[in-house]
């Protein structure tokens, strides 16, 4: 993985010192709150409902054991002993004090980490496929591009005060695990007909109150044109994006209002100007990045003990089936550590659990960990020979819940338990759903299912692209939850459709129970997932299950 | 009254509204060197033939959160403008480095802001210009 | 039709600690809503909010929140968001409910 050079080290230290000074100037009155706010946001610091919240960047979700241990140390020393992994592949601390934040940032710099541009109207931490470098279907390791973009976007002088935030995601595989179609820019590594490497470039995707699927702005972009082309997109957006209404300020609205054809022409024109004087990327730097992401030396150990354990241990078999994915090397596997124990908070890990994962990464798995946008931790290179040991250690730490891709593997934003923008809580809803279906023992039977919960219209919980999406709202002073069905976050990204009136917190879980029991009745076979079944039958039968008191006629009328 | 921030420190602003012309006036033709007030929503396309007549282009920052001026400055530099680029209005000291790296030479700020964010603070930003990922990534020489 | 004016408290977050705070009758910031000053008419509420807003080196983002008076005449939150702010999160026993 990427190793900081002298410049990176000098940069993050200077940045910490600068923030320390900005805090002092805020306290002395030299900076007003209005001036300080964007500065603290660009250093990852929010003021939330009960406290400050610090969002630490985990660039493209990759970290090593030393970094994970430092995250644990920070959780214990300056927070309440845990951290929250997010859909942006970051980690958040919910309880830091303003005066401690510069020290926390210094502690991060000690292990080549930072919180730069995890918030604010700038280019945010670049996200990528959490299986990069390990996936079988990969054309190239997306993190090389993502790291290049991290460096290019960090403190970019032209793009620190954009109309709104700007998110870039990269995938190196045709199977999109990075939700590239729901980002301001999505990059998909492809090859042209002659075999040259490049990208398909998508723009204008995003969730929030106006969900949009990204559109192709350039079908094939040669690799060497990446930075001038991205700069052209950003410049057109910075100059023409709306600044009169924050809800219309994302690039998706510019794409929508201008039209992709016209915007493409503007971008191409800007690109030509930029390219004419673009000297190219320093090849030594690029090479250094590529070398840092070279695959580890894989040891082809015997898989016999793994095979034996699978044969005789049912629990282990269940975990392997759900939480272990195929690696590009047959003797290896990709392990996803579930941060979704039944009744727990999706994405939370205690300092102790972080240390367990760090130890496992260091001892057995080439010292690498990943944060997935689905709020789990990935051990990307595990020799199958070590799977039994890894499983045993995870189980002791409460980290072996075999529920990946199942009902209780829920994405949930922090919601009104923490977030000052939220309109309702998300976490207790996720907990209640997981507990209820655990009680019913239906999760395994229901099979593959993505439930995603957001506590407000900003959609941090990706509810629009959940097979079942849940959106928490404030309805006349009471928490109310709307259900959408049929969303999809993959390469076939699709925005789900709202079914009908919302439910109170008490009504919601029984409604989901009716919905999923009716799915079990309606499916043609256990192989037909909820998503497939929904696409075959359409909304009506599921709407009937959710609203049994409505007559079929009313259902039709409601939808018209 | 206002001050001009440059790398070496503050200067008193000696220019007034009368020293600048608008883009519309410029497009009617010029016969002597002039200074241009260019709105941050105005398009500089087609300005190249006038560049040799422009001593200065001034770009407003109505609010420090409005970053259009940075891209406009960069675009002008990429189109080949080599005269003085001045940012004017509400920029804070923490943005000085960004303004300089985007192509501005100087910033015009009012005295109230200059009192709250004094000369040394702006000057402390000068050295940070050197810590630029963007410069470092590019091929040199 | 004018809506009935509900009593108000002034609430904000502490600049250094980030904690939820309330404006008290003697112009101090306190941590417990029960010690907050209650304003029964809009004019006083807004005048006091302007006054509180001047103390920008103590707090961030003061606003008026609806309140009800309990049997002892002490203010209680009305909206669920304000109730959560007097307690803390529901997934852990952290924040004000835990006494910090």
Task: Please write out the topology.
The complex is a heterotrimer of chains A (about 550), B (about 140) and C (about 100).
Chain A: H1 6-28, H2 33-41, E1 45-47, E2 52-56, E3 62-63, H3 65-78, E4 82-85, E5 91-93, H4 101-110, E6 127-128, H5 142-153, E7 168-171, E8 185-191, E9 197-203, E10 215-222, H6 226-240, H7 251-258, H8 260-276, H9 283-292, H10 304-312, H11 314-323, E11 324-326, E12 332-337, E13 348-350, H12 351-364, E14 369-371, E15 377-383, H13 387-396, E16 411-412, H14 427-440, H15 443-446, E17 451-454, E18 468-475, E19 478-485, E20 497-498, E21 503-504, H16 505-522, H17 530-537, H18 540-546, H19 552-559
Parallel strand pairs in A: 6-7, 7-8, 16-17, 17-18
Antiparallel strand pairs in A: 1-2, 2-5, 3-14, 4-5, 4-13, 8-9, 9-10, 11-12, 12-15, 14-15, 18-19, 19-20, 19-21
Helix pairs in contact in A: 1-2, 1-4, 3-12, 6-8, 7-8, 10-11, 14-16, 16-18
Chain B: E1 2-6, E2 9-12, E3 21-22, H1 23-27, E4 34-37, E5 54-61, H2 68-79, E6 84-89, H3 96-102, E7 106-110, H4 111-116, H5 119-123, H6 133-137
Parallel strand pairs in B: 3-4, 4-5, 5-6, 6-7
Antiparallel strand pairs in B: 1-2, 1-7
Chain C: E1 8-14, E2 20-23, E3 29-30, H1 42-53, E4 59-69, E5 75-77, H2 80-87
Antiparallel strand pairs in C: 1-2, 1-4, 2-3, 4-5
**Could you give the count of β-strands of chain C?**
5
| Gap from first CA to last CA of chain A | 53 Å
Strand order, biggest sheet of chain C? 3-2-1-4-5
Reading the helices and strands of chain C in chain order gives EEEHEEH
The geometry of chain A reads as: globular
Describe the structure.
The complex is a heterotrimer of chains A (560), B (141) and C (100). In chain A, strand 1 and strand 2 (52-56) form a beta hairpin. Chain A is an alpha+beta fold. In chain A, the strands form four sheets. In chain A, strands 16, 17, 18, 19, 20 and 21 form a six-stranded mixed sheet that branches. Chain A has a five-stranded antiparallel sheet with strand order 1-2-5-4-13. In chain A, 39% of the residues lie in helices and 17% in strands. Chain B has one domain (2-137): Rossmann fold. Chain B is globular. By secondary structure, chain B is an alpha/beta fold. Chain C has one domain. Chain C has helices at 42-53, 80-87, and strands at 8-14, 20-23, 29-30, 59-69, 75-77. In chain C, a hairpin with a 5-residue loop joins strand 2 (20-23) and strand 3. The longest helix of chain C is centred in the middle third of the chain and has 12 residues, at 42-53. Chain C is globular, with a radius of gyration of 13 Å.
């Amino acid at each position: 993985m990427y190793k900081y050079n002298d410049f990176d080290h000098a940069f993050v230290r200077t940045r910490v010192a600068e923030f320390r000074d900005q805090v002092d100037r805020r306290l002395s009155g030299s900076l007003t709150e209005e001036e300080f706010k964007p500065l603290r946001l660009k250093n990852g610091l929010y003021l939330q409902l009960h406290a400050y919240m610090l969002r630490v960047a985990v660039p493209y979700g990759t970290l090593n054991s030393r970094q994970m241990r430092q995250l644990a140390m920070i959780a214990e020393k300056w927070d309440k002993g845990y951290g929250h992994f997010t859909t942006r592949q970051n980690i958040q601390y919910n309880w830091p004090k303003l005066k401690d934040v510069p020290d926390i940032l210094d502690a991060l710099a000690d292990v080549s980490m930072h919180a730069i541009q995890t918030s604010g109207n700038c280019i945010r931490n670049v996200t990528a496929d959490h299986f990069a470098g390990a996936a079988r279907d990969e054309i190239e390791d997306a993190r090389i591009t993502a790291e290049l973009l991290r460096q290019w976007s960090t403190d970019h002088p032209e793009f620190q005060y954009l109309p709104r935030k700007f998110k870039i995601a990269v995938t190196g595989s045709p199977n999109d695990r990075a939700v590239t179609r729901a980002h301001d820019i999505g990059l998909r590594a492809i090859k042209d007909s002659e075999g040259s490497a490049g990208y398909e470039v998508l723009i204008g995707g995003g969730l929030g109150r106006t969900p949009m699927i990204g559109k192709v702005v350039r079908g094939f972009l040669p690799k060497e044109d990446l930075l001038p082309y991205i700069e052209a997109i950003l410049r057109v957006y910075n100059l023409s994006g709306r600044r009169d209404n924050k809800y219309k300020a994302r690039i998706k609205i510019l794409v929508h209002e201008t039209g992709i054809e016209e915007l493409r022409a503007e971008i191409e024109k800007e690109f030509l100007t930029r390219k004419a004087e673009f000297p190219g990327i320093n090849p030594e730097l690029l090479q250094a990045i590529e070398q840092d992401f070279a695959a580890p030396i894989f040891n082809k150990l015997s898989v016999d003990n793994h095979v034996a354990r699978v044969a005789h241990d049912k629990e282990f078999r269940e975990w392997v089936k759900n939480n272990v994915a195929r690696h590009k090397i047959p003797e290896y596997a990709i392990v996803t550590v579930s941060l979704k124990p039944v009744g727990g908070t999706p994405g939370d890990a205690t300092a102790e659990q972080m240390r367990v994962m760090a130890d496992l990464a260091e001892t057995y798995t080439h010292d690498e960990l990943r944060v997935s946008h689905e709020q789990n931790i990935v051990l990307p290179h595990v020799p199958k020979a070590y799977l039994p040991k890894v499983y045993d250690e995870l189980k002791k730490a409460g980290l072996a819940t075999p529920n990946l891709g199942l009902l209780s593997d829920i994405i949930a934003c922090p919601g009104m338990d923490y977030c000052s923008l939220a309109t309702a809580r998300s976490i207790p809803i996720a907990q209640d759903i997981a507990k209820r279906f655990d009680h019913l023992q239906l999760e395994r039977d229901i099979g593959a299912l993505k439930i995603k919960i957001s506590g407000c219209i900003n959609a941090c919980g990706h509810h629009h692209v959940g097979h079942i999406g849940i959106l928490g709202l404030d309805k006349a002073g009471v928490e109310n939850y709307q259900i959408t069905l049929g969303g999809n976050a993959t390469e076939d990204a699709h925005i789900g459709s709202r079914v009908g009136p919302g439910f109170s917190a008490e009504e919601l879980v029984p409604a989901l129970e009716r919905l999923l029991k009716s799915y079990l009745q309606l499916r043609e076979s256990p192989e037909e997932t909820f998503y497939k079944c929904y696409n075959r039958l359409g909304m009506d039968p599921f709407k009937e299950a959710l609203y049994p008191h409505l007559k079929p006629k009313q259902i039709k009328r409601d939808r018209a | 009254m206002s001050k001009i921030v440059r790398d070496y420190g503050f200067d008193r602003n000696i220019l007034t509204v009368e020293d600048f012309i608008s883009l519309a006036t410029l497009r009617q033709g010029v016969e002597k060197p002039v200074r241009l007030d260019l709105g941050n929503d105005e398009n500089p396309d087609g300005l190249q033939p006038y560049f040799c007549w422009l001593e200065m282009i001034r770009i407003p920052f109505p609010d420090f959160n409005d970053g259009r001026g940075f891209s406009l400055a960069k675009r002008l530099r990429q189109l080949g403008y080599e005269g003085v680029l001045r940012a004017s209005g509400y920029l804070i000291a923490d943005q000085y480095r960004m303004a300089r790296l985007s192509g501005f030479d100087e910033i015009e700020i009012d005295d109230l802001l200059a009192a709250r964010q004094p000369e040394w603070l702006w000057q402390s930003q000068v050295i940070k210009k050197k810590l630029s990922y963007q410069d470092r990534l590019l091929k040199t020489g | 039709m004018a809506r009935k004016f509900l009593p108000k408290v002034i609430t904000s977050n502490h600049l250094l600690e980030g904690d939820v705070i309330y404006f008290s009758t003697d112009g101090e910031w306190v941590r417990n809503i029960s010690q907050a000053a209650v304003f029964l008419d809009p004019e006083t509420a807004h005048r006091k909010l302007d006054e509180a807003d001047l103390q920008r080196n103590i707090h961030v983002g003061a606003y008026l929140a609806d309140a009800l008076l309990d049997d002892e005449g002490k203010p209680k939150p009305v909206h669920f968001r304000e109730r959560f702010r007097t307690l803390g999160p529901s997934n852990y026993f952290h924040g004000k409910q835990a006494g910090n």
